[in-house]
User: What shape does this take?
Amino acid sequence: MRALIQRVTAASVAVDGTTIGEIEHGLLILVCAMSGDTEAQAGKLAAKIAKLRIFRDDDGKMNRSLLDTGGAALVVSQFTLAADTSRGNRPGYSQAAPPELGEALVAYFAEELGKQGVTIAHGKFGADMKVSLVNDGPVTIWLDTEN
Assistant: This one.
């Protein structure tokens, strides 16, 4: 699985002009299930993100996790993280999991993140979403279970 996480002071996602998910302090998590991914990988990624120390401590150092700060997560499916740009100018997405599997793994990822104690808000799989955020830092980190 791949995830692009952004530390935020606020984030929201809307579909057809209606906000369907929003958080304040926490992480916007754009997540993509790749072909061959499993629930085990989704669970491992969720645990890693919940404990990743990228929030400031009292000394201003990135030493606190999402769990430590009580932050929330906005989980948005993002199949374009599977983009292959190695040939030509039009990205290919054949490395992304098929939609049914992708939807199930993104949902499982969010569920596992919630089990870690993180409050979760969601986007809508397959929808044309408008995502808004206030990136804090900015802090943006790429994670891939293959690495």
Observations:
- The chain has a mean pLDDT of 97.
- The chain has one domain: 2-136.
- The beta strands are 2-15, 18-23, 26-32, 55-56, 62-64, 72-77, 119-122, 129-144.
